[in-house]
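Encode chain A's predicted structure.
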Amino acid sequence: MPEAHSETSIVEREVRVEAEPEVVFPFFTDPEKMVRWLASSAVLDPRPGGAFSIDTGVDFMIAGEYVAVEPNTRVVFTWGFGGLPDQGNLLPPGASTVEVDLVPDGEATVVHLTHRVPAALADFHSIGWEHYLGRLAIAAPGGDPGPDAFARAGELLTPDE
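Encoded structure for chain A:
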Protein backbone atom coordinates (compact mmCIF):
# COMPACT_ATOMS: atom_id res chain seq x y z
CA MET A 1 0.00 0.00 0.00
CA PRO A 2 1.48 3.43 -0.90
CA GLU A 3 2.20 5.86 1.91
CA ALA A 4 -0.40 8.57 2.52
CA HIS A 5 2.05 11.35 1.65
CA SER A 6 3.24 9.91 -1.68
CA GLU A 7 0.91 12.17 -3.68
CA THR A 8 1.42 15.90 -3.21
CA SER A 9 -1.10 18.66 -3.75
CA ILE A 10 -0.43 22.36 -3.98
CA VAL A 11 -2.64 24.64 -1.91
CA GLU A 12 -2.52 28.23 -3.13
CA ARG A 13 -4.21 31.16 -1.46
CA GLU A 14 -3.93 34.90 -1.89
CA VAL A 15 -5.12 37.83 0.18
CA ARG A 16 -4.75 41.59 -0.17
CA VAL A 17 -3.63 43.20 3.08
CA GLU A 18 -4.08 46.94 3.58
CA ALA A 19 -0.51 47.41 4.79
CA GLU A 20 2.85 47.68 3.08
CA PRO A 21 5.19 44.63 2.84
CA GLU A 22 7.47 45.90 5.63
CA VAL A 23 4.45 45.88 7.95
CA VAL A 24 3.17 42.45 6.81
CA PHE A 25 6.51 40.60 6.76
CA PRO A 26 7.01 40.49 10.58
CA PHE A 27 3.70 38.64 10.91
CA PHE A 28 5.65 35.64 9.53
CA THR A 29 8.83 36.15 11.57
CA ASP A 30 7.98 37.84 14.90
CA PRO A 31 6.40 35.56 17.55
CA GLU A 32 4.36 38.42 19.06
CA LYS A 33 2.83 39.22 15.68
CA MET A 34 2.37 35.55 14.71
CA VAL A 35 0.12 34.94 17.72
CA ARG A 36 -2.17 37.77 16.66
CA TRP A 37 -3.44 35.77 13.67
CA LEU A 38 -2.18 32.16 13.57
CA ALA A 39 -1.15 30.63 16.89
CA SER A 40 -1.51 30.75 20.64
CA SER A 41 2.29 30.79 21.03
CA ALA A 42 5.27 30.73 18.71
CA VAL A 43 9.01 30.06 18.75
CA LEU A 44 10.51 31.57 15.63
CA ASP A 45 14.14 31.95 14.57
CA PRO A 46 13.76 33.58 11.14
CA ARG A 47 16.95 32.55 9.40
CA PRO A 48 17.65 29.59 7.11
CA GLY A 49 17.74 26.53 9.36
CA GLY A 50 16.13 28.41 12.25
CA ALA A 51 13.18 27.03 14.20
CA PHE A 52 9.58 27.52 13.12
CA SER A 53 7.29 26.21 15.84
CA ILE A 54 3.77 27.30 16.68
CA ASP A 55 1.23 26.05 19.19
CA THR A 56 -2.26 25.93 17.74
CA GLY A 57 -3.87 25.82 21.14
CA VAL A 58 -5.54 22.52 20.23
CA ASP A 59 -3.18 19.89 21.65
CA PHE A 60 -0.67 19.88 18.83
CA MET A 61 2.19 21.91 17.45
CA ILE A 62 3.20 22.86 13.97
CA ALA A 63 6.95 22.39 13.63
CA GLY A 64 9.55 22.95 10.95
CA GLU A 65 12.29 25.36 10.08
CA TYR A 66 12.85 28.43 7.98
CA VAL A 67 14.29 27.71 4.55
CA ALA A 68 14.49 31.24 3.10
CA VAL A 69 13.96 34.64 4.67
CA GLU A 70 14.06 37.63 2.30
CA PRO A 71 12.92 40.65 4.32
CA ASN A 72 9.70 42.26 3.13
CA THR A 73 9.60 40.02 0.05
CA ARG A 74 9.52 36.28 0.73
CA VAL A 75 9.61 33.69 3.47
CA VAL A 76 9.74 29.90 3.11
CA PHE A 77 9.39 27.43 5.97
CA THR A 78 8.73 23.76 6.46
CA TRP A 79 5.60 22.59 8.28
CA GLY A 80 4.27 19.46 9.92
CA PHE A 81 2.37 18.22 12.94
CA GLY A 82 3.94 17.53 16.30
CA GLY A 83 2.21 16.11 19.36
CA LEU A 84 -0.36 14.11 17.39
CA PRO A 85 0.62 10.45 17.63
CA ASP A 86 -2.21 9.34 15.35
CA GLN A 87 -1.57 11.99 12.69
CA GLY A 88 2.19 12.53 12.89
CA ASN A 89 2.97 9.86 10.32
CA LEU A 90 0.79 11.63 7.74
CA LEU A 91 2.63 14.95 8.02
CA PRO A 92 5.53 14.80 10.47
CA PRO A 93 7.32 18.01 11.53
CA GLY A 94 9.03 19.66 8.57
CA ALA A 95 7.43 17.36 5.97
CA SER A 96 5.73 20.04 3.86
CA THR A 97 6.80 23.45 2.58
CA VAL A 98 5.03 26.81 2.82
CA GLU A 99 6.16 29.62 0.52
CA VAL A 100 4.92 33.16 1.12
CA ASP A 101 5.52 35.94 -1.39
CA LEU A 102 4.71 39.54 -0.51
CA VAL A 103 3.87 41.62 -3.58
CA PRO A 104 3.55 45.41 -3.17
CA ASP A 105 0.21 46.75 -4.42
CA GLY A 106 0.19 50.51 -3.90
CA GLU A 107 0.08 50.99 -0.12
CA ALA A 108 -1.14 47.40 0.31
CA THR A 109 0.43 43.96 -0.06
CA VAL A 110 -0.77 40.91 -1.92
CA VAL A 111 0.20 37.87 0.15
CA HIS A 112 0.55 34.82 -2.09
CA LEU A 113 0.88 31.56 -0.17
CA THR A 114 1.77 28.18 -1.68
CA HIS A 115 1.74 25.08 0.52
CA ARG A 116 2.82 21.67 -0.79
CA VAL A 117 1.02 19.00 1.25
CA PRO A 118 0.01 15.36 0.96
CA ALA A 119 -3.09 15.10 -1.22
CA ALA A 120 -5.04 13.66 1.71
CA LEU A 121 -4.52 16.92 3.64
CA ALA A 122 -5.09 19.42 0.83
CA ASP A 123 -8.70 20.29 1.71
CA PHE A 124 -7.85 20.62 5.41
CA HIS A 125 -5.00 23.05 4.67
CA SER A 126 -6.97 24.91 2.00
CA ILE A 127 -9.75 25.69 4.48
CA GLY A 128 -7.22 26.52 7.18
CA TRP A 129 -5.17 28.94 5.08
CA GLU A 130 -8.31 30.66 3.80
CA HIS A 131 -9.36 31.23 7.41
CA TYR A 132 -5.95 32.31 8.71
CA LEU A 133 -5.07 34.61 5.82
CA GLY A 134 -8.38 36.36 6.47
CA ARG A 135 -7.23 36.87 10.07
CA LEU A 136 -3.86 38.16 8.81
CA ALA A 137 -5.66 40.71 6.58
CA ILE A 138 -7.29 42.11 9.74
CA ALA A 139 -4.30 41.87 12.11
CA ALA A 140 -1.50 43.27 9.91
CA PRO A 141 -3.10 46.71 9.38
CA GLY A 142 -3.65 46.95 13.14
CA GLY A 143 -7.08 45.38 13.58
CA ASP A 144 -8.17 42.71 16.03
CA PRO A 145 -9.30 39.48 14.33
CA GLY A 146 -10.85 38.38 17.65
CA PRO A 147 -10.76 34.91 19.17
CA ASP A 148 -9.79 32.17 16.73
CA ALA A 149 -12.97 30.21 16.01
CA PHE A 150 -10.93 27.37 14.48
CA ALA A 151 -8.87 26.90 17.64
CA ARG A 152 -12.03 26.94 19.74
CA ALA A 153 -13.75 24.46 17.39
CA GLY A 154 -10.70 22.19 17.66
CA GLU A 155 -10.95 22.25 21.45
CA LEU A 156 -14.57 21.17 21.21
CA LEU A 157 -13.75 18.41 18.73
CA THR A 158 -10.67 17.03 20.48
CA PRO A 159 -11.65 13.84 22.32
CA ASP A 160 -10.91 13.65 26.03
CA GLU A 161 -8.13 11.27 26.89
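Residues 1-5, 154-161 have pLDDT under 50 and may be disordered.
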